[in-house]
Design goal:
It is built from 7 helices and 51 strands. The chain is 7% helix and 57% strand.
Length: 941
C-alpha cells in the first residue's frame, strides 16, 4: 500500500509542476449584490461559445483566451443582467474586481425587501439551475427563515429528504427513503467520521452542528465522478462560511421558552470577517452557542415471546442541551492565479440529562394475591459529542484550467461526562423496587410465555386511544409509589466511548479546458481512518444484609419534575402515581456512601472481562484510495453531457474479540475491495428557464462498523452464537434519475422527476444453523449480504410567489413538494418486504408572506411510517410511525442593521411513535416534546 501511495503522490506532484507553468491571459472577477456573493451566476462571452459560472464565493476565472476586445454578459435569476467590455492584452491578467448586480425594482416595497428572502432563494436556485447533476440547494439566509437549529433540520424541507429525531431535535438524515447510513453526509466535500452513543453505523449525527456555521447546503440526488460516491441514497454537503469580500459583523441574541420543561432557551451568535485593504488576506470568525432546557414524556411497552407487554416503562426526561460551534477561515491571495486557505472547525453537543423511569413488571404478576412489582430507576448522565477539523488547501488557476488540493484532519468522539465521578463516567442508574403492588387481574393473561398485559388489538385491555384503559392497571385508583417501601435493587454504570479519526484526508483535482466545448477533469483522494469503540455495562448489587430503602435518603428526595403533568397531551393522570425520587446530588451521594457495600453482578454485567459485549468493543483501521476521470462535453447550446468513472479502493482491518472455550481471544480480519463506479449525466436546456436532466450512476455503501466485528459469543444456554461478519461485501446501487425544472423569472421553480434504484448485496441480520467447536445445531445470528432489492419514486415541487395577484395577496407565496416511493426486497427467510426506512410518502407545505421589512413563514412537514426492523411476520416488525410537524418563523427588519425575529417550533406537538406492525394499535414507544418559542434580535454591520 505504501508503494502505491508513493507512486500516486509522485504522479500528483509531477502533474502539478507541469500544469502550473505556461499561463497566459486571464480574466477574473467576483459577482455580488449589495453585500453577498452571487454563486452560480452565468458569465458568457458574446460571440464565443465559452461560458462559465461563478463559484460558491461568486468568483470566476476565464482562461485559455486570446488577446483582444470582448464583451462579458453576466446574468442571474431574479437580477438584471450586466455587460462589461474588456480589452485583453498579451500575457495580461485583467481583474474586474467586484461586479455588482441589482434586482429589478417595480415599487417601493421591493426596494425595502432587497436583501431578504427573495435574493436568498435566487442564490440557491442559480446554483441548482447551473449544476450538471440533480441537486437541491439551500442558502444560509433561507435556513434562518425557520426555527431549524441544527444541520439535520435544515434539509427536512427538501423533497425526498427526511430526518430522525432525538428528544425532538433532528439528528440523522435519510434520502429518498433509504437508511441514514446509506446517505453520504459531508462538510466542504469531505465525508465526516461518525461517533454516536448507541449506533455502530456510518450515519453521521448532525445535532451537534449549529446552522449558523452553514453557508450553503447541497442535497445531491446524483453524484458526479469528482464526488465521494459512498451514498446509495445520495449525499448532503454542508458548506461552511468563508471570508467575505468586505468587512462584516453580525450578531444574534435570543431567548425563548420550552413549554414542556417550563424553562428557558437561550442563543448567542456572532460573525466577524473581512479583508485587508489590498484584498489579499481574508479572515472569518464565526461562533454560535445555543442552550435549551428540554423535557420529554415517553412511555415504552417492552415485550418478549409474543405480542404481550411484560414491562411498561413510564419515562420522564429533563435536561439541558448546550451546542457550541466555532468556524474559522483564512484566505491568502498569493496572485490572481493562486489562492491558499486554512479552515478550522469545532462543534460540540453536551446533554445533561436527568431521567426517571417507572417500570411496571406485568411479568412478575402473582395470581395468588393479584400483585406485581414496580421499579423506579433514577438516572443521570452527561452525553458529550465533539468534532474537530482542520483543512489546508489552495486553488491554482492555469492557462487551460485549474488545480485544487486539500489536506484535512477530522476527529469525532462521543463520551459520557464525569457522573458520578471521573473514574466511573457513565450513564448512571440507581434502581429501587416496590413489591406487592395491586394490579387489576383483568389486565393479565398468560398465553404460554408467562403473565403479560395485552393490547386491545390482541384481546387485552391496553388501549393506546383510551388513556384511562391504557393506564388503568392499578387495582387501587389512588395508588402512589411509596419511598418507605422502595428498596434498593441494583446500581448500573453504562459506559460508552467512541472516537473516529480521519488522520489525513488528501485530495487533488485537476480541471483541463481542452476546448470551448470539452472540459476534462481527474483527481485523487486518500483517507486514513481509525475508529476505537469501548463499551461496558456493569451492575452492582447489595453485598450483604438488608439493602436500604429510598426513604433512607430522605434529605435527597425531590418531587419528579413533570409529576402530575406527565403525558398531559393524552389527558392521562398516571403521573399522579409518581412518588418522590432521588435528586442528582442524592444519586452521587449514594455511590460515595455505599461503594463498600456493593458487589458486581457478573451474570447481568456486560464487559470484556466477563467474555461479553464483544460486538461493542472493537477497533477499525480503514484506508480509502480513490481516483476518477471525467469529461464534460457541450454538444451545442442546449445539450451538455458528462461522463466518467470513479474507482474507490477500501482496505478495512478490524480488531475485536472472540470467546473460545470460555477464553477471550483477540481476533483480526482484513477485507479489501475495489468499487468501480461509472456515471453519466445529460442536461438538456430547452430554453433559459427550462432544464431536463438525466443521470445513470453506480454508487455504493460500505458495511456499518458494527456489522464488521470479527468476534462473537457462544451462549450455551440458548445454543446460539451471535457475532459480526468481517467478510461482508459493500452494497451497490445502479441509479436512474430523470428530472425536469422550470425556473420562474420572479425567483421560483416548478420541478418534477422520477428515480429508480437497483440495489445488490444489501445487508441483513441473518440466522442459520451451523457447527461451532464441534457442537451441531448451533443457531448463528450475524449480518450477511442478501438478495437484490429495488426502490422507485416520484418527486414533485413548486416554489411560487403570488405577485401576479392584486393588492395584499401579491406578497404571499408557497413552497410545496411531495415524494412518493415504493420498494421491495426479500429477506433471507423468503419474506418480501419494503426496504427499511422507506416511507411511502413525504410532504412539505410552506406559506410565506413578505412585504417591506416583514416576512413570515408557516411550514408543515409530514413523513409517512416506515419499518425500521423486520421480523418474520408483520405483527412483530418495528415501525417508526407517521410524523407531522408545524413550525412558524417571522422577522421584521427595522433598519439595515437591526432585525427582530420570533419563532414557534413544534406547534402541533404530535407524538413520535414507534409501533409493532403497520398500525398504531401496538405502540412500542410514544414521545411528546412540547411547544418551543424563541424571540431575539439580529445585528448586521
Amino acid at each position: 500500500m505504501k508503494t502505491n501511495l508513493e507512486k500516486l503522490f509522485t504522479l500528483v506532484f509531477v502533474c502539478f509542476i507541469v500544469f502550473v507553468t505556461a499561463q497566459k491571459q486571464l480574466i477574473i472577477g467576483t459577482v455580488l449584490d449589495d453585500s453577498q456573493p452571487l454563486p452560480g451566476a452565468t458569465v458568457k462571452i458574446k460571440g464565443l461559445s465559452k461560458n462559465m459560472t461563478t463559484d460558491i464565493e461568486g468568483k470566476f476565472t476565464i482562461n485559455d483566451i486570446k488577446e483582444g476586445q470582448y464583451t462579458l454578459q453576466i446574468s442571474y435569476i431574479g437580477y438584471e443582467s450586466s455587460d462589461i467590455n474588456v480589452d485583453l492584452k498579451p500575457e495580461q491578467t485583467v481583474d474586474l474586481g467586484i461586479i455588482k448586480l441589482s434586482q429589478p425594482r417595480k415599487n417601493i416595497d421591493e426596494i425595502v425587501v432587497t436583501g431578504t428572502l427573495k435574493n436568498t432563494e435566487a442564490r440557491a436556485l442559480n446554483l441548482q439551475k447551473n449544476a450538471i447533476n440533480i441537486t437541491n440547494v439551500i442558502a444560509s439566509d433561507g435556513i434562518g427563515k425557520l426555527p431549524d437549529r441544527n444541520a439535520a433540520e435544515t434539509v427536512q424541507r427538501v423533497q425526498g429528504v427526511s430526518i430522525e429525531r432525538d428528544q425532538g431535535e433532528g439528528r440523522f438524515v435519510s434520502l429518498r427513503g433509504l437508511p441514514p447510513f446509506w446517505a453520504s453526509t459531508t462538510i466542504n466535500g469531505n465525508r465526516l467520521p461518525t461517533a454516536e452513543e448507541e449506533t455502530t453505523s456510518r450515519a453521521t449525527a448532525f445535532d451537534f452542528f449549529p446552522t449558523e456555521l452553514i453557508s450553503y447546503v447541497h442535497i445531491n440526488k446524483s453524484f458526479t465522478p469528482d464526488m465521494e460516491a459512498d451514498g446509495i441514497g445520495g449525499g448532503v454537503n454542508f458548506i461552511t462560511k468563508t471570508p467575505p469580500m468586505k468587512t462584516e459583523f453580525k450578531a444574534t441574541v435570543g431567548s425563548g421558552y420550552n413549554a414542556k420543561s417550563d424553562k428557558g432557551v437561550y442563543n448567542l451568535g456572532f460573525l466577524y470577517g473581512g479583508r485587508t485593504k489590498d484584498k489579499k488576506f481574508g479572515y472569518l470568525f464565526n461562533f454560535a452557542h445555543f442552550i435549551r432546557n428540554w423535557s420529554t414524556d415517553n412511555f415504552e411497552a417492552r415485550r418478549s415471546g409474543d405480542e404481550g407487554v411484560f414491562r411498561l416503562e413510564l419515562r420522564d426526561y429533563n435536561g439541558v442541551r448546550k451546542t457550541t460551534g466555532i468556524n474559522t477561515a483564512f484566505e491568502y491571495v498569493l496572485s490572481p492565479k493562486t489562492t491558499f486557505y486554512l479552515k478550522g472547525m469545532y462543534g460540540t453537543l453536551s446533554d445533561d440529562e436527568t431521567h426517571y423511569k417507572h417500570r411496571i413488571r406485568f411479568d412478575k404478576f402473582s395470581s395468588a394475591n393479584n400483585t406485581a412489582r414496580v421499579e423506579l430507576q433514577n438516572i443521570h448522565n452527561l452525553l458529550i459529542t465533539e468534532l474537530t477539523s482542520v483543512s489546508l488547501g489552495a486553488v491554482h488557476n492555469l492557462n487551460k484550467g485549474k488545480i485544487d488540493w486539500d489536506l484535512s484532519y477530522y476527529d469525532n468522539k462521543f463520551k459520557y461526562g464525569n457522573i458520578p465521578d471521573k473514574q466511573n463516567n457513565s450513564y448512571y442508574v440507581i434502581k429501587y423496587t416496590q413489591s406487592g403492588v395491586g394490579i387489576n387481574p383483568d389486565y393479565i393473561s398468560n398465553h404460554g410465555n408467562g403473565p403479560r398485559a395485552y393490547w386491545k388489538a390482541d384481546g387485552g385491555k391496553l388501549d393506546y386511544k383510551n388513556p384511562d384503559a391504557l393506564f388503568g392497571f392499578y387495582s387501587d385508583p389512588n395508588f402512589k409509589m411509596d419511598a418507605s417501601q422502595m428498596r434498593f435493587t441494583d446500581l448500573e454504570f453504562y459506559k460508552v466511548f467512541v472516537e473516529e479519526k480521519d488522520k489525513i484526508v488528501a485530495a487533488f483535482n485537476h480541471e483541463i479546458n481542452a476546448s470551448d466545448k470539452l472540459t476534462l477533469k481527474y483527481g485523487f483522494k486518500y483517507r486514513d481512518k481509525e475508529r476505537n469503540a469501548k463499551f461496558s455495562d456493569i451492575f452492582y448489587n447489595w453485598s450483604s444484609g438488608t439493602a436500604p430503602l429510598l426513604s433512607d435518603y430522605s434529605q435527597y428526595l425531590t418531587t419528579q419534575p413533570n409529576g402530575p403533568k406527565y403525558l398531559s397531551e393524552m389527558n392521562a393522570h398516571i403521573g399522579n402515581t409518581f412518588g418522590p425520587v432521588l435528586s442528582t446530588t442524592g444519586m452521587n451521594q449514594f455511590w460515595y456512601d455505599n461503594q463498600g457495600n456493593l458487589k458486581i453482578n457478573t451474570a447481568d454485567s456486560e464487559a470484556l472481562q466477563y467474555n461479553k459485549a464483544l460486538g461493542r468493543n472493537f477497533d477499525v483501521f480503514e484506508k480509502h484510495a480513490d481516483a476518477y476521470g471525467m469529461a464534460t462535453y457541450k454538444l451545442n447550446d442546449k445539450i451538455i453531457i458528462l461522463g466518467g468513472i470513479r474507482l474507490s479502493n477500501t482496505n478495512t482491518k478490524v480488531r475485536g474479540y472472540s470467546v473460545n472455550d470460555d477464553v477471550l481471544t483477540p481476533v483480526e480480519n482484513t477485507k479489501n475491495y475495489l468499487a468501480v463506479l461509472p456515471m453519466i449525466h445529460l442536461k438538456y436546456t430547452l430554453n433559459d428557464k427550462t432544464n431536463l436532466r438525466f443521470a445513470a450512476t453506480r454508487t455504493f455503501s460500505r458495511p456499518n462498523f458494527g456489522d464488521l466485528t470479527p468476534g462473537g459469543t457462544y451462549i450455551e444456554a440458548d445454543n446460539e452464537f451471535k457475532g459480526g461478519n468481517p467478510n461482508l461485501n459493500p452494497t451497490y446501487s445502479l441509479n436512474f434519475d430523470l428530472m425536469g425544472e422550470y425556473y420562474f423569472s420572479n425567483v421560483g421553480i416548478l420541478s418534477g422527476g422520477v428515480f429508480y434504484k437497483s440495489i445488490t448485496d444489501p445487508i441483513f441480520q441473518d440466522s442459520f444453523i451451523g457447527n461451532y467447536n464441534g457442537i451441531n445445531g448451533v443457531q448463528f445470528t450475524a449480518p450477511n449480504n442478501g438478495k437484490a432489492a429495488w426502490l422507485g419514486g416520484v418527486e414533485l415541487g413548486i416554489n411560487k410567489r403570488f405577485d401576479f395577484l392584486p393588492g395584499f395577496l401579491q406578497y404571499f407565496g408557497v413552497q410545496l413538494n411531495a415524494t412518493f416511493m415504493t420498494s421491495e426486497m426479500e429477506k433471507p427467510g423468503g419474506r418480501t418486504v419494503a426496504l427499511p426506512y422507506q416511507a411511502k410518502e413525504l410532504y412539505n407545505a410552506q406559506l410565506f408572506f413578505e412585504k417591506k421589512g416583514f416576512n413570515a413563514r408557516l411550514a408543515y412537514n409530514y413523513k409517512g411510517k416506515y419499518a425500521v426492523e423486520y421480523a418474520e411476520e408483520d405483527i412483530n416488525d418495528s415501525y417508526y410511525g407517521k410524523y407531522s410537524n408545524l413550525d412558524f418563523g417571522s422577522s421584521y427588519q427595522f433598519t439595515k442593521y437591526l432585525t427582530l425575529y420570533a419563532d414557534v417550533n413544534n406547534i402541533l406537538n404530535k407524538p413520535l411513535i414507534y409501533h409493532f406492525g403497520k398500525s398504531e394499535d401496538r405502540p412500542e414507544q410514544v414521545e411528546y416534546y412540547g411547544v418551543r418559542f424563541n424571540l431575539g434580535i439580529k445585528l448586521n454591520f
